[in-house]
Amino acid sequence: MNSSLPIRVGIIGLGAIGEGMTQVFTEHQSTEVVAVCDVVEERARQRATDLGNIFWTTNYQELVNHPELDLVYVAVPPVLHYPIVMDLLKTKKHILCEKPLANSLSEAKEMLEKAEEAGIVHAIHFPLSYINNMKELTARMESGYLGKLRRIELEMRFPEWPRKWQKNDWIASREQGGFVFEVAGHFVQIIQQLFGKITPIETELEYPEDPTSCEIGILAKLKLEDGTPILINGISQIPGLQEQSISLTMYGTKGTLSLVDLVKLYGGQLGQEFAEITIEKDMSFWEEFINQLVNAIEGKPSSMIDFHQGYEVQLILEALRTPRN
Ligand SMILES: NC(=O)c1ccc[n+]([C@@H]2O[C@H](COP(=O)([O-])OP(=O)(O)OC[C@H]3O[C@@H](n4cnc5c(N)ncnc54)[C@H](O)[C@@H]3O)[C@@H](O)[C@H]2O)c1
């Protein structure tokens, strides 16, 4: 690729995350959004107008076949990741797919295999690694802050699911929604990145009466390769609770570290108080995410998370929710 020219990006899906990422791609000096697509015509037309009358369509095939795109970002609901990515792979365009990679393990496997065969960059949008708190947590762990790791716990509490700002038709469905599939995947990816392979042991899901609605609770036990236990404790629809909370805690023999609601990091070592570790808030993680994506497309060293990790996360998610093979 000629690195002096911006990477030409097409975006499929202009909902909650697609809209935000359109802004991120627009602001980044190395990328330029040149085509957008959404089934909601007004959404696609308006965004295209805002971006200077760029190409827009309501038919994703037209964007897939657009001749002047280097990269396509797929930001549609999970059941659509597979058909759209498989069509894109025929065109050899680079792909950034939203997480979760697919809506079943077999879909995820095929997407990974075909993307490898196509020889394209196949990135997946797991942005947590680029957040300052995660970088600090990783640095502390690597410097031996925890001592020997004893246990990892992921706790998720949602007063209601879907969350107030998330009223779309798929996020509460058993078919492709639920907080396990939607939220836990971010943390599964982080645990795998930090500690390697995870093996599920047992899962108990709590479901509402409506057979089409997603889970309202999960208790799960998993383990790392060395036997260190991982506990997942998640619950939604909690009367009286006002605020959601999500924490990932690592208990070690010498110290404890906890990432709380993504924006806070707590820690303490033997003889110290367990307290918030103040870290400068830095919103440039989006920029770093795109930098890594651009590096991968330009053939430079990159820490971009790709379909391999997407598949590894899917393996665990399918074991946690009612699996779709
Ligand atoms: N990486 C992250 O941090 C993160 C955060 C939120 C959501 N997500 C993921 O992003 C994806 C989208 O989530 P969302 O919250 O933006 O959903 P959303 O429902 O708000 O947006 C989806 C958009 O896709 C459009 N769409 C649906 N079918 C389409 C089709 N056939 N062709 C073109 N457009 C179509 C919808 O009209 C909508 O605008 C999901 O996979 C979700 O899990 C990732």
From TrEMBL:
Residues 7-121 form the Gfo/Idh/MocA-like oxidoreductase N-terminal domain. Keywords: Oxidoreductase. Pfam families: GFO_IDH_MocA, GFO_IDH_MocA_C3. This is Gfo/Idh/MocA family oxidoreductase. PANTHER family: BCDNA.GH03377. The lineage of its organism: Bacteria, Bacillati, Bacillota, Bacilli, Bacillales. It comes from the Bacteria. It comes from Anaerobacillus alkaliphilus. The keyword Oxidoreductase applies. One of its GO terms (molecular function) is oxidoreductase activity. Coiled coil: none annotated. Residues 136-257 form the GFO/IDH/MocA-like oxidoreductase domain.
